[in-house]
Design goal:
It is a single chain. This protein is an alpha+beta fold. The protein has a six-stranded antiparallel sheet. 60% of the residues lie in helices and 19% in strands. It folds into two domains: 228 residues, no CATH class; 93 residues, no CATH class. Helix 1 packs parallel to helix 4, helix 2 runs parallel beside helix 6 and helix 6 runs antiparallel to helix 7.
C-alpha cells in the first residue's frame, strides 16, 4: 500500500515535471512568436487563427517532444534537493530500502508514460494536420509536390504505373493499369491522363486503350476518350508531404504501412520508425527515472549543479543517440524497430550500473 512518503515523492515528481514542462513551453511560445510575427503580419493572419489553428496545436507537439528530457531533469532536480537536505539519508536510515524508495518514482514514470503515449498516438496527429497546414500556408509557403515514375500494386494482382503526377492539378500523365491472373496478363489499360474526381471518388481515364487478353492469340481492344472507373488509390498516395506520418494516429499509421507494403512500395522506413518511436519514447520515462534517482540520491562535492549538469548531458546524449540510430534506419542500413530501441537498450545498461552504485 502507498504511504505518506510515496505521495510526498510522487507529488514532487509530477509537480516538478509539469511545472518545468509548462515553463519551457511558455518560453518556446514567446520565442516562436518573436520569430514568426513578421509572417503573421505579412499574411494578415487573424489572432483567432494564430491561437486556435497554430498555438493550440503547437503546445501539445512540443510537450511530447520535450517529455524525455524533462523527466530526467525533474527527477535530478527534486531528488538532489532531497539529498542535500538529508531527506534521502533519513529515509534510508529508517529502514526503507532503496528498492522500496523507487516505487513512487516508477508510479510517476507510469503516469508520464501514459500521458506521453496518449499524446503522441492520438492527440497530436490530428492536431498536426491543422498545425502543418497553417505552417505550409502562412509561414513556410510550401506546397505539396508530386511524384515521378510511380510503380504501385493497388490490389493483389493489380498494378499501376504513372509517369508523372501533378499535385497541383490532381492529374497523372501516361497512366497504365495491368491486371494479372497468377503470372498471366489478362487486362491492360493505358491512358494519356488519369484525373481524380473528388465529388464522386472515381478516376477519369482520358484517351484510353483497353486490352483484354482472352488467350495468347486473341485480345479485345477498346478505345475511347473517357473511361470512368473506381481504383483503390487516392491523390494523397501520390504526394510527397514532409512529416506526413506525424498526422496519422496509430490505427491510420498501421493501415497506411500495410497498404504501402501490399502495393509493393518499400519506402516506409520513416513510418515504421514513427510507429516504434511512439512506444519507445514513453518507455524511456522508466529508464530515465531510474537513472535520475540513482544519480541524484547521493551527496557529492559540487552540489546540485553537478547533478543537473550530468543529467542534462545524459539527456542530450540519449536524444543524440536516438537521432543517429534512426538515421541509419532511414538510409536502409538497420531495421527500424532496432534503430529506435537501441538507445533504450544501451541506457538500460547505464541505468542498471547507476542503480547498482547508488547508496543503499
Amino acid at each position: 500500500m502507498l504511504k505518506i512518503l510515496d505521495f510526498y515523492i510522487l507529488k514532487k515528481f509530477l509537480g516538478t515535471f509539469f511545472f518545468a514542462l509548462a515553463l519551457i513551453l511558455s518560453i518556446s511560445v514567446v520565442f516562436d512568436i518573436a520569430e514568426k510575427i513578421d509572417d503573421f503580419l505579412d499574411n494578415e493572419v487573424t489572432l483567432k487563427m494564430i491561437i486556435l489553428d497554430y498555438y493550440i496545436n503547437f503546445i501539445p507537439y512540443f510537450a511530447y517532444l520535450f517529455t524525455p528530457l524533462f523527466v530526467f531533469i525533474s527527477v535530478i532536480f527534486f531528488t538532489s534537493k532531497m539529498a542535500y537536505q538529508s531527506e534521502i539519508i533519513a529515509i534510508l536510515s529508517n529502514g526503507v530500502s532503496f528498492r522500496r524508495l523507487m516505487i513512487p518514482y516508477i508510479l510517476g514514470a507510469i503516469v508520464i508514460s501514459a500521458f506521453s503515449f496518449v499524446l503522441g498516438s492520438y492527440i497530436i496527429p490530428p492536431a498536426n494536420k491543422t498545425r502543418l497546414d497553417f505552417e505550409n500556408k502562412y509561414i513556410k509557403k510550401r506546397r505539396e509536390t508530386g511524384m515521378n515514375n510511380i510503380h504501385m500494386q493497388i490490389e493483389p494482382g493489380v498494378f499501376i504505373y504513372v509517369w508523372r503526377y501533378s499535385s497541383m492539378r490532381d492529374v497523372g500523365d501516361d497512366f497504365s493499369l495491368e491486371k494479372f491472373d497468377g503470372k498471366d496478363l489478362v487486362m491492360k489499360i493505358s491512358a494519356k491522363e488519369a484525373i481524380y474526381n473528388a465529388d464522386s471518388a472515381y478516376w477519369s481515364l482520358k484517351r484510353f486503350v483497353r486490352r483484354d487478353y482472352i488467350n495468347p492469340e486473341l485480345q479485345i481492344i477498346t478505345e475511347g476518350e473517357v473511361l470512368d472507373t473506381i481504383l483503390n488509390i487516392h491523390p494523397a498516395d501520390f504526394k510527397e508531404e514532409r512529416n506526413f506520418y506525424e498526422t496519422m494516429n496509430n490505427k491510420e499509421l498501421d493501415r497506411f504501412i500495410k497498404e504501402q507494403l501490399q502495393r509493393g512500395i518499400g519506402n516506409v522506413e520513416e513510418f515504421l520508425i514513427e510507429k516504434n518511436r511512439r512506444i519507445a519514447s514513453p518507455f524511456s520515462a522508466f529508464i530515465l527515472s531510474i537513472m535520475g534517482v540513482s544519480l541524484a540520491s547521493r551527496k557529492v562535492r559540487g552540489g546540485m549543479g553537478l547533478h543537473i549538469g550530468v543529467g542534462i548531458g545524459l539527456s542530450f546524449g540519449y536524444i543524440l543517440f536516438m537521432t543517429i540510430s534512426t538515421t541509419f534506419a532511414v538510409n536502409g542500413n538497420a531495421p527500424p524497430w532496432l534503430a529506435v530501441w537501441i538507445p533504450n537498450f544501451v541506457f538500460i545498461l547505464v541505468a542498471g550500473l547507476l542503480y547498482y552504485k547508488a547508496p543503499k
